[in-house]
Write a structure and sequence with these properties.
Blueprint (H helix, E strand, L loop, with lengths): L7 H19 L3 H38 L1 H32 L10 H4 L4 H7 E2 L2 E2 L1 H21 L5 H10 L5 E3 L4 E3 L1 H6 L4 H34 L7 E5 L3 E2 L4 E8 L10 E4 L2 E3 L1 E2 L2 E7 L4 E13 L2 E13 L7 E4 L4 E3 L4 E6 L8 E4 L3 E3 L5 E4 L6 E9 L5 E11 L5 E4 L2 E2 L1 E4 L1 H6 L2 E4 L8 E11 L5 E4 L5 H8 L6 E12 L13 E5 L1
Parallel strand pairs: 6-13, 15-21, 24-29
Antiparallel strand pairs: 1-2, 3-4, 5-7, 7-11, 8-9, 8-12, 10-11, 12-13, 14-16, 16-19, 17-20, 18-19, 20-21, 22-23, 22-25, 26-27, 26-28, 28-29
Helix pairs in contact: 2-3, 2-9, 3-6, 3-9
Length: about 525
């Protein structure tokens, strides 16, 4: 209990204290043990959610790294290494938890009340009054983790955040008021505790690992945002009045900054060797288009910052094309259109403004933005879209295109979002929603199940109105055993969320095998 020389009386008091603590552990109430078990379950569930959130955040960081490797590439590599380090440490703790509870069925009612002994971790982490080899290894891993994180992250992790992580995994000695002595971290936290209490503490340690990973990813994004606030991060963007110009036209457009600031005025702007007028955060230019082909726009955006001239390079291009004699008609989804759906289309003539373009077809309606249309075809196998336009000189041009019309294919039944043969317990099927999906379809359609037939092997089929099993289904399901299959068929659906006016095709059934 305490170091130094002790009197026989003090040794006896300490021994009695240990016996008292052991008796408390042996007689810990069932309610307290259950409370530890419930807490552990909540922490485990929280860790699973944090894992998903961390995976999501890392995916966003990876996407940023692919788009802006200079700003996020190094951070992505660091986070990737830290995630690998975290995973190894997390799995190490998970293995210990599984080994300690191997003899228990964690799904059994009242199992936490049986986990009142502490021999597993007492024998694992301690050898008499001393810490065992395994205990020292455990302490070492806890101690090394934050410093390995710091080694990988370096200056990319803020000092305040790093100090918080180090404190989170501190293994400093702890002064125990009850024991009247200073105890080692592992002795204070894991010696003489019921098994479920020790498992709960390990789950919390896993939560600390996940929290550390989450904080680091968030911190990486935060440092990038601070860096992006610098003036040197502004990028001039060339925005031509249109993407292509006819021969003889004047090339018009604007050069704006990626982060527009109305109070930011350039000292000077040079475009293709000529000085142009600079206004709040932008500059306007105009020059001859030149010959047919691709041309560059180059120059500099010059600012006065802290008494020094900061020059940001301008680089862009434009294409000069001959006058058009055909229209550009394309289906946004594919080269066919689907019956009963508002198929989005983009219809335009190269170099001609939208107000000078007219399109017509059976079921074609104008969209909210220039060039946008919706084509909702009716009967037949083909539909022809005709387009006419006026050139800048007033002359008309026309074109047309034929599209094939297809019906919407039938969806596939799903249980709890899974298609095909789904396996699981009866209880899962009783609460699962029956849905329908249309995988690999070009439109994001949502199907609502309105009716289905529920058939358990060896029982009569039950017709259900809605998308969940009813009392009759549950009665039939009660007779099913392990390995029996439940067939969900004759699934009737309707499309929701879009103005579809067709009935979907026959829905494929889904099988549920009882485990």
């Amino acid at each position: 209990m305490a170091g130094g020389k002790l009197t026989p009386r003090q040794k006896m008091i300490n021994l009695m204290y240990l016996v008292f603590i052991a008796m408390l552990a042996l007689n810990m109430s069932k309610e307290v043990l259950s409370a530890f078990g419930i807490l552990n379950k909540k922490i485990v569930e929280s860790n699973q959610l944090t894992t998903l959130r961390n995976d999501d955040a890392f995916a966003q960081l990876a996407q940023k790294a692919s788009e802006q490797s200079g700003q996020f590439g190094d951070k992505k590599i660091k986070v990737e290494k830290i995630r690998a380090l975290s995973k190894d440490f997390y799995n190490y703790i998970e293995d210990m938890k599984k080994a300690s509870s191997a003899q228990f069925d964690m799904n059994e009612e009242g199992v936490y009340e049986k986990m009142d002994k502490g021999e597993f971790f007492d024998n694992l982490f301690f050898k008499g009054d001393k810490i065992s080899k395994e205990g020292k290894e455990f302490i070492s891993k806890v101690q090394k983790f934050p410093f390995e994180v710091k080694k990988i992250g370096g200056s990319a992790i803020a000092e305040a955040e790093m100090n918080k992580i180090i404190n989170r995994f501190s293994t400093a000695e702890i002064k125990s008021k009850k024991a009247g002595a200073t105890l080692s971290w592992i002795d204070y936290n894991y010696k003489g505790f019921p098994l479920i209490a020790s498992i709960t503490k390990l789950s919390q340690l896993q939560a600390d690992i996940k929290t550390t990973e989450s904080d680091i990813i968030a911190g990486m994004f935060q440092t990038s945002l601070i860096s992006a606030a610098s003036l040197t991060k502004y990028q001039p963007i060339v925005v031509p009045e249109k993407s292509a110009f006819f021969q003889g036209e004047a090339v018009k457009g604007k050069i704006i900054l990626g982060k527009f600031d109305p109070d930011l005025i350039a000292k000077s702007v040079i475009v293709n060797g000529q000085s142009v007028k600079a206004t709040a955060g932008q500059a306007e230019f105009s020059f001859g288009a030149g010959a047919v082909g691709e041309h560059e726009i180059t120059g500099t955006f010059n600012f006065d910052e802290g008494g020094k001239i900061v020059s940001l390079p301008i680089k862009g291009n434009y294409v000069v094309v001959p006058k058009p004699n055909s229209a550009n008609i394309s289906a946004d989804k594919m080269n066919v259109v689907y019956r009963g759906l508002p198929n989005p289309m983009t219809i335009s003539f190269a170099g001609i403004s939208d107000d000078k373009v007219k399109a017509s077809a059976t079921g074609l309606t104008k969209g909210a933005k220039p060039g946008q249309y919706n084509l909702n075809p009716g009967s037949g196998n083909e539909v022809t879209v005709g387009v006419t336009a006026l050139l800048p000189d007033g002359k008309p041009v026309s074109d047309k295109k034929v599209f094939r019309i297809k019906n919407i294919p039938g969806p596939i039944g799903a249980i709890g979002g899974e298609m095909g043969v789904v396996k699981g317990a009866k209880s899962r099927l009783e609460v699962s929603q029956i849905t329908a999906k249309l995988p690999d379809f070009l439109y994001d359609l949502t199907f609502q199940v309105t009716q289905f037939t529920f058939k358990v092997t060896g029982t009569a089929a039950v017709i259900v109105i809605g998308d969940r099993v009813n009392a009759q289904c549950k009665t039939a399901l009660a007779r099913a055993g392990r390995g029996d299959q439940v067939t969900i068929s004759d699934i009737k659906t309707k499309i929701v969320g879009v103005s579809a006016n067709v009935i979907p095709g026959k829905t494929a059934p889904v099988i549920y095998e009882i485990q």
